[in-house]
Design goal:
Helix content: over 70%
Strand order of the largest sheet: 1-2
Number of domains: 1
Low-confidence stretches: none
Number of strands: 2
Shape: globular
Mean pLDDT: 86
Oligomer: single chain
Order of helices and strands: HHHEEH
Bound molecules: protoporphyrin IX containing FE
Distance between the termini: 34 Å
Largest sheet: 2 strands, antiparallel
Strand content: under 5%
Structural class: mainly alpha
Number of helices: 4
Radius of gyration: 19 Å
Length: 146
Amino acid sequence: MSKSTGYTPTAKTLHWLIVALLVAQFVFAWTMPHIGRNTPVTTLISLHFSFGVAILVVVFVRLLWRATHAEPTPLDGVPPWQVQSAWVLHWLLYLMLFGIPVLGWINASWRGMPIGMFGWDCRNSLGREHQVGAGAVTCTQYSQIS
Ligand code: HEM
């Protein structure tokens, strides 16, 4: 990874895409009907799920990008405590952007609600991918032992 002097257009695009999705997500969250026992999944609730899963996908892409591209070097004269607190806050933000949709997903699953992203049924797909992933982990462990 080489040090850069500014964020790349891809990083900026992913950043503003997440901001736009979050703004829409809060609008849906605050206008959708209160979710209680046996609440039917109406359009606004379905949009909340779709945008939430979309945020999870984009944040995952952003994390992959972050893992393979160096962040810009701090400007001259910025005190170390500011550099360190910016680093901590950035990772806290990533943690929340990842954790909040996962918690919402668990909540909706626990209620037996259909979770999808714009018509794509995530429950069934993730069930299959979970199995494939678990199989891959088992094979990797086995090949390391033998
Ligand atoms: C970054 C993404 C997300 C944000 C910012 C977010 C935000 C919120 C907010 C603010 C509420 C409270 C609404 C109220 O005032 O009653 C809420 C509720 C809820 N969200 Fe999300 N959400 C996200 C992702 C998701 C996802 C991915 C799912 C499911 C697939 C989900 C499912 C739910 C459910 C089931 C509730 C109702 C919880 C309850 O009242 O017990 N959310 N969300």
